[in-house]
Amino acid sequence: MILADKITNLRKKNGWSQEELAEKMQVSRQAVSKWEGAQTVPDLEKILMLSRLFGVTTDYLLKDEIEDEEFTDDADRVPVKRVSLARANEFLEWRKHAARRIAAAVFLCIVSVIPLLLLGAAAEAPGHVISENMAAGVGLTVLLVLVAAAVAIFISCGFKNAPFEFLNREPFETEYGVDGLVKEQQKAYRPTYIKINIVATCLCILSPIPLFIGAFTGKDFFAVAMLAVTLLAAGVGAVLFILAGVRRESMKKLLKEGGCALRDKRENRVRKTVSTAFWLTATAVYLGWSFLTDDWDTTWIVWPVAGILFAVVICICNLLTDRDSEPD
Q1: Which tens digit of pLDDT belongs to each residue from 68-94?
Q2: Going by C-beta distance under 8 Å and a sequence separation of 6 or more, which residues neighbour residue 107?
Q3: Helical residues (DSSP H) of the chain, grouped into ranges
């Protein structure tokens, strides 16, 4: 007996329709239909889920020569956590709040250097009202306070997210109604998600304009002030990316289907490779320009520009991986 027939028999013995089995397996009814029609074969993760769901061994499911059902010992079965409708709502609501906190923390990190830059420029301006030592001391103090506040927010979010960590680490099932609820929210949120990403991308692309304007004037303090504006614009862009992305990822997490974990790993690997290549290139550009011109007072501009461009590169990378992961 082949796998397709075994799935059909076990489903009927439990009195489930294809829709009900699909709901329990977190896949579409068409996927179950293809399994039972021997058109496709479930991946290993789904085989394990079928084994737990029907209470049979994986050997029985995978080996055609085994005709009689081999049931697993309940004492040895690992219980799979179930996400109720209330729990799913709680998770989605928490991630919405977490997105705001994480975005605020990232914004603090980005703008933390602005007081140091402005005070340093003010100390070097003609008729300065603050000494270089005072400017450095105050600027560094503000920077450390803002970074410490950001770290505190990150740690707080980590602790509050602990009850939902099993969604990342363990197999789970959703109760009836969860899948439909999340899909409705995802569909309703998609236009907003697209608009936020468009605005954030435009902000990141246009954010260097104040920096270029400041550089062309030749006035040091004005150039630094324009750099601060550039950082603020990039920070707002990053905030928008996080606000949209965290909420969307929380929905995707509850709607995991066959191959989703593998796809997430592939996307993370792509992002890691792109990030490594980008920053190695930025470092090479900085060092090459600095050593060739010996103008270290100017070449530092590579880093804020690289930070802005990095947000754009990651956005494009996300859009490409999202497009590749869309079902045909």
Answers
A1: 766 665 434 455 677 888 889 999 999
A2: 235, 236, 238, 239
A3: 3-13, 18-25, 29-36, 44-54, 58-62, 85-111, 114-124, 132-160, 166-169, 178-206, 208-217, 220-254, 260-293, 296-299, 302-325
Question: Could you tell me the end-to-end alpha-carbon distance of the chain, in angstroms, rounded to an integer?
Answer: 31
Classify domain 3-76 by CATH number. Answer: 1.10.260.40
Token readout for 188 is 């309703």
Q: How confident is the model over 118-151, as pLDDT tens digits?
A: 888 888 777 767 887 888 889 889 989 998 999 9
Check residue 27 and report its DSSP letter: S
Task: Name the token pair of 154.
Answer: 């990150």
CA-only gyration radius of the chain, Å: 27
Domain residue spans of the chain: 3-76, 84-169+207-255, 262-328
Work out the pLDDT band at 67, boundaries 50, 70, 90.
confident
Tokens 């209330």 sit at which residue? 86
Please tell me the pTM assigned to this model: 0.62
pLDDT (tens digit, 9 = 90+) per residue, 199-213? 988 888 888 888 788
Number of other CB atoms surrounding residue 160 within 10 Å: 13
Kindly state the percentage of the chain with pLDDT values over 90.
18
Tell me if 270 sits within 8 A of 321, measured CB to CB. Answer: yes
Please give the structure tokens belonging to residue 286.
Answer: 């900085």
